[in-house]
Write a structure and sequence with these properties.
265 residues, eight-stranded antiparallel sheet, 11 strands, rod-shaped
Length: 265
Amino acid sequence: MRGRLSISRFAALSGLSAKTLRYYDAIGLLRPDTVDETTSYRAYGVAQISSAVCIRRWRELGLPIGEIRQLLQHPKHAQEIFLRHARRLSAEIEDRQQALLHLHHFLQEAPMNYRIEHLPARQILSIRTRLQPPHYEVIPEALRELMLHAKAQGYPVDAPSFFVHNNDDQGEGGSLVEIGLPVAGEVAPQGRIEVRTFAGGRALIGRFVGPYDKTGSAYSAVVEEALRRGLSITGVTAEFYVKSVPDTPNPEAYETDIAFFLEEG
């Protein structure tokens, strides 16, 4: 019949597959011009090619079926519909860009080389204070104070400095943290600097390489590793500054051991 196209021919001319055309017929988006009552063969009019091509292009732009239906029924609203979709695409692009940045970070991130270790008890110069995130500056300030005191008194530093965060202690003014500097020999307290014994204990440790402001993700990674291994962690964590400011000027080269202390038994 003149002016009528079989579904296969219409599919070839419009760029839509026969399967898609059958689906659009089923949902009432683009019905064929005629359907043979005996064979159920669909036939489309040549004039429908324009609508079919528009539908294909709109779907390629990511427009939902519901909005395409609105465009076909109310073409005067096209500007409003397109602007709304443009805003939606912009938001999606921003979300995808953030996801891509995170993915690149994960791909470039060095393995944390997990290990379980029993940290020994040792003598430390200690400053105990309260931490109120995001005011983390109390930690480097305390470390500088400890280092200056040890240097002034000639105390031999025995191992990397660290701080312990007791997550169970949530008193007034923030949670309790202890900044420690292991030292050997006879030492004396001064001001807020105490001489204490770091109890140590069994811990799951992961080594993070990078600047201190990115260690937050490392904590989550160690927790996930503990869960994967079926380990029971306590509320106590520690950061050991294996390679830090005195060792390198490059924050990307800092090495920090993130330790989660484990339940005994």
